[in-house]
Queue: 2 jobs
Job 1
Amino acid sequence: MKILEACFLVIVITAATVNSSPIADHDLSNEKNVHRNHHRTRRATENEYRRMSPSDRPKCKSGSTMPRPPNEVNTTSRLQKLRALFPAYDGIKAYYIPTEDAHQSEYVAAHDERRVYISGFSGSAGTAVVTEDKAALWTDGRYFLQAEAELDCNWILMKQGETGVPSSTEWLGSLLSAGDKVGANPTLMPIDSWQVIENRMKDKSISLIGNSTDLVDEIWPDSERPAFPNGDIIILNTTFSGKSWKDKVTELRKKMADKNTRALFVTALDETAWLFNLRGSDIAYNPFFISYAIVEENNVRFYLSNKTGRLTPKIAVHLSTGTTGDCSGKTGICVQVKPYEDALSDMKNLNDTSSTKKVWISPASSYAVYSSIPASQVLKERSPIQLLKAVKNQVERDGYERCQIRDSAALIEFLAMLEKDVKSGSKQWNEISAASKLEEYRRMQQYNMGLSFNTISAVGSNGAVIHYSPAPSTNKNLTTTEMYLLDSGGQYLDGTTDVTRTLHFGTPTEEMKQAYTRVLMGAINLAMMIWPEGTYGREIDSAARAPLWSYGWNYRHGTGHGIGAFLSVHEGPPYTVYKAYSVRDGPFAAGMFLSIEPGYYEPDQFGVRLETIVMVVKANTPNNFGNKTYLTFKPVTLVPFETHLIKYDLLDDKQTKWLNDYHAECMEKVGKVLQAAGKTEAYKWMEARVQQISTSGQAFLTANMLLAFCLVVISRVL
Ligand SMILES: *[C@@H]1O[C@H](CO)[C@@H](O)[C@H](O)[C@H]1NC(C)=O
Ligand SMILES: *[C@@H]1O[C@H](CO)[C@@H](O)[C@H](O)[C@H]1NC(C)=O
Ligand SMILES: *[C@@H]1O[C@H](CO)[C@@H](O)[C@H](O)[C@H]1NC(C)=O
Ligand SMILES: *[C@@H]1O[C@H](CO)[C@@H](O)[C@H](O)[C@H]1NC(C)=O
Ligand SMILES: *[C@@H]1O[C@H](CO)[C@@H](O)[C@H](O)[C@H]1NC(C)=O
Ligand SMILES: *[C@@H]1O[C@H](CO)[C@@H](O)[C@H](O)[C@H]1NC(C)=O
Ligand SMILES: *[C@@H]1O[C@H](CO)[C@@H](O)[C@H](O)[C@H]1NC(C)=O
Ligand SMILES: [Mn+2]
């Protein structure tokens, strides 16, 4: 349920950077401008904020006879219990409940779904604020309908981005008085969010305070709360990771020395998994284990729960640690394993006023981590692991290409079978049954470790809902008249995949072909792009949009995201998001992998998205102005496009050549595998799609035919 739009970080990024998230920092400057320019209207607005009430919502109006949706959650007693804790919590008047876990993970374990528990709203983005007599939930446009249904009539639904909707601090400002206190768990709130809320409320003399007790944890009975995950942990062999954890620690220490730091505090779960060459199963679709790490000049500490004894003797050997995890009597590099709960107190102990060296933390750390030691001792900068992880080593690159071939083969085999059934009508498929069958095909592949996100399997109008994920209530049958958008991916020991293809099993309309072709042209344009090193994704994103823009079309999501090596399907840097300036961005570098996924969505009719994973490689240019390396992309996802959806006459020669080369490579690498495995149907499906097109497309053929006709006529005349 959390993973609804797993594949849509790109949209989340856009939403977080462009839309007004209630607590995002970019919002702050907007708010200042609003205050300066519209000072006179401010009082009236504040009164309106104060009067906002759950009865503004249709089903909650007094006398409403609308039936209560079955997914609505009665939160009356939960809210009562929460409010009862306010007096002991230094007399706070309101409490923030964010979506995040302590590691700022994209997806959180069920155990950490505090905002879902308190509000009943189960979407992946939102912030709840509870005062002594009101409760409000902020979420963005993807979730208005879902929130309206799930929130009971204790809640005000704050529709972010709609006019007249206050930010959380504006709302609190209208309700509270000078000297009042607002509480939040500093372990769950990112540094920026905390500081933005704190600064905005300063004007009103309202303070934000933290307390090591989480109020939702206090009221959530163990009997109702999913347990702390404690999933199994496996060792990732260097035949897949390409580098031992010891070498990674050595590299990190060099980066730490360059920045004059004495310790690195590691918060992100994909970073601890990468660092120790371990993979877990605490979070759906992500091979992570809930943990922290501290790397210092002379020791390495690793914090995680061992309640289920998952730290096996094998892992102790892998980490060169004693079975007690304490490194005593060990010579050489060893990982000290400590209880998860000790991480923040150990961070506090890094406070060393005598040292000139700082402690390196990521800007994505929680405010609790940041405030553990004096700000003067903190270097708040992108974790050095981010870049080391994003630039894959040679072993990872090779593994990546191999897993993409297997994954492409699985998808092709599935699509060949699906098309045959849908066209012949011999078997009825729907969005859900198709997604689960595809999962079976993936799971049969070597090294498969499950899916990398919840499959987006969308027929017709469902494809136009960007965050769509099939559910029994919306499930549609596959037909020969509607488009089918399929966005899916797998986890493999040697890599992570994410691929989208859009299909039509009958005769598509002109508009469908126009949309498909323009999206394809955009994908090809970006894939062919050559740029000097140092370029950011946002600077070349428009190449993918140009064929849509020229037709007055566009799409409301980013064009690409980095992807992990048996880690998260979304990782940064790099990101390719037009106009989005995010601290998480970084320039493209050779050896990074990312998606290229433009789309077009015709509301209530269909959606088109084409997503291919590419590797950043050195380009062959005649010059290298500025002594720079010039870079380009090499596709590694190898699934052919739909020939009958392409209007070849729209493609220029270079685009056609790219398509021809791509299809030849699909045949060469995946076709071969299918043929060798005797998968005749799948091989034939491919063959029908990889026909080489002459470089001026249909137009060229027509001209040739005309010329031939003329020659015949002329020769007859002569
Ligand atoms: C919600 O639960 C409370 C008791 O906790 C009950 O009094 C109330 O009637 C319930 N509300 C609805 C709408 O069912
Ligand atoms: C934190 O809040 C809880 C719950 O209100 C309270 O019991 C506890 O004493 C508070 N702790 C501190 C250090 O104020
Ligand atoms: C790693 O893989 C190599 C080659 O397959 C194998 O020989 C070795 O035993 C593996 N190591 C571990 C710890 O599994
Ligand atoms: C983890 O738990 C197992 C089983 O209880 C135990 O044998 C092992 O020593 C523990 N490891 C650490 C590092 O605590
Ligand atoms: C850090 O240590 C100094 C000196 O021991 C102390 O005065 C200060 O309060 C500590 N800071 C924090 C945030 O714990
Ligand atoms: C989907 O197909 C099933 C099985 O043929 C059929 O029972 C059902 O009515 C179809 N649903 C729709 C919405 O057409
Ligand atoms: C580029 O590199 C060449 C050879 O290393 C050097 O001679 C030249 O000065 C450099 N040019 C610039 C602009 O740095
Ligand atoms: Mn993607």
Job 2
Amino acid sequence: MVAFYLSQYDLYVYKINTKFMSSLANNYNRRKISFKYGKGSFLYSTSGKRYLDMVGGIAVLSLGHANPYLIKALTKQAKKVWHISNAFLAPEGEKLAKKITRNSFADKVMYVNSGAEATEASIKVARRYFFSKGKSYKNRIICIKNSFHGRTIAAIHASGSKKMVEGFGPKVPGFDHIDFKNFKPRFPNIRKKIKKNTAAIMIETVMGEGGVKVVPNKCLKYLRKICNEKKILLILDEVQCGIGRTGKFFAFEHANVRPDIVPIAKGIGGGFPIGAVLMTNKVAKCMTPGTHGSTFGGNPLAMSVSNAVLDQLLKKNFFKNVTKLSQYFLKELNKIKDEFPKIIKEIRGKGFLIGIQLHFDQSNFIKSLEQNYLLTIRASENVIRVLPPLNVKKIEIDLALKTIKKVCKEYK
Ligand SMILES: *Cc1c(COP(=O)(O)O)cnc(C)c1O
């Protein structure tokens, strides 16, 4: 029946009827638009329109759509072997891990398949670390209230968002929360939160879903200091802000701090699902055979694509270019803000993790941008997230700026 429909009508008609005939679960509020293909920073809709894509699969498409180098890596691997499992040696994974460790704080890499899996595994590593030291009572994790670490049962309770945990009880114990308010300019209240049973502090270096809130460098430094002092671990969730998005390989490099554990995902795969936990030797030692596992973790296809992503990102001047162009983008956005102070409250972010905070609910504004062929996505606190590919061109940024300005002008 469905096959009949799809062969008879084009996807555009299908999408209109989606509400009535969709076999997909209803857990997303999908926009009524579908795409035939993408190329670089653009998506082409089934109705023949070209959209400038600054959603980027939610900070996933580091190198845009249909990047030839990534296509080559994927198809080359696809002809060799798709999947082997972790019962055998993993040369593609080894190669990627070397690239990551050579260019970061990390000594060891453990692969999973998504961001939530990476944050959960990070929690496991922190707890197992203290278990291996004979201190299994140290198992609580301090997180920021209304942060975002993914949608699994533990991750939603780590995030501490009432909305996300509602209806998914019983409550997963082991998490304590502090308010982001306490982050400015330092951490007046965090010392009191750290108890004898605290194992780690886990925060996003830049809070993505929470409204593109950058944790000040001073705060990160202070966090490192207090973690050293209290002998607990620092987990920095770089699932969204890592892998070049802020103009450095990792966002915490801006503050020059060295975390103990870092979950990554989104951008490293450039569109192919992958997650990983990066660790120092000190903590990685506790992850002995059998302590964690993932059937798909380190899958050769994911490894090959991620290797190709990093080949591009780690090229000389790539991050420099991200910094240069993103600073231009932010500067010009601030000019638009100054021109429309009644609409735009604040321009937030670092690198190409950009937030435009409005004075009011952003939904209609996002819709207007879309009607003008610019795709963006929401975040908390009335924020519109702008997430171009890291290799976006200046003329594409100018097109986005022109569109945002136009919508501001016409906005009632
Ligand atoms: C997206 C995100 C996650 C969850 O990633 P999934 O791949 O959706 O499970 C976790 N942490 C942060 C900071 C994220 O932005």
